[in-house]
Each structure stands twice: as C-alpha cells, then as structure tokens.
Amino acid sequence: MALRIRLSRGGAKKRPFYRIVVAEAASPRDGRFVDKLGTYNPMLPTSHPNYLIISQDRLKYWLSVGAKVADRVHRILARVDIMEPFIWNEQTKDSLTEKNPK
C-alpha cells in the first residue's frame, strides 16, 4: 500500500479548487482518499490567508509513516516555506561532454 500526498480537484469549470489528500498511489485523482490534510486555491493570491490551509501536524505524521509527496504538492508547500524547495541538477548533453577535447 503506497501512500501519496497529492491534490484532488474540485470546483467548477475554469475555477479550480484542490484538496490536499493522502491517497493510495493507484487510486484515481478524485477517488477515495485516506485523510484530508487541507485545501489549496490557486485562484487566490499567495498572500491571501485561504490560499493554502493545511494541517502541519497531520502532514508530519503522514511523512513519518512513509507517504511520498507528489511533485506539485511539494512545489506548493515550498512556495509557502513548509518544505525545502527542489534542487535541480540538470544534466544537458553539453555538460556531459568532455570539457577539453583531445
């Protein structure tokens, strides 16, 4: 049973509203979930108090149990300083080639 912390979409057409939920990785996006951690409203500015509402103690609990955080949720939580942001280690073809050709 692999658990994932991810977004579940609600709201009307072109007016998205998301619940941050803990669900099994194989379940559908808007399907059954184990626990609701909070809400995320992308239509509001970041400074608005209802932009992101999350229970941090439940988040810490599910992370300690072994639930993985989805990429989009990780970015949202990093934007409001709850988690550390991603560190990208990009490897392009140029960086993989030898710097001093012989």
From TrEMBL:
UniProt-listed PROSITE patterns: RIBOSOMAL_S16
Presence of keyword Methyltransferase: no
GO CC list: cytoplasm; small ribosomal subunit
Keywords assigned by UniProt, alphabetized: Ribonucleoprotein, Ribosomal protein
One GO-annotated biological process of the protein: translation
GO molecular function, one term: structural constituent of ribosome
Database matches in InterPro entries: Ribosomal_bS16, Ribosomal_bS16_CS, Ribosomal_bS16_dom_sf
Protein family per UniProt: Belongs to the bacterial ribosomal protein bS16 family.
NCBIfam families per UniProt: S16 (TIGR00002)
Protein name per UniProt: Small ribosomal subunit protein bS16
Native source organism of the sequence: Candidatus Endolissoclinum faulkneri L5
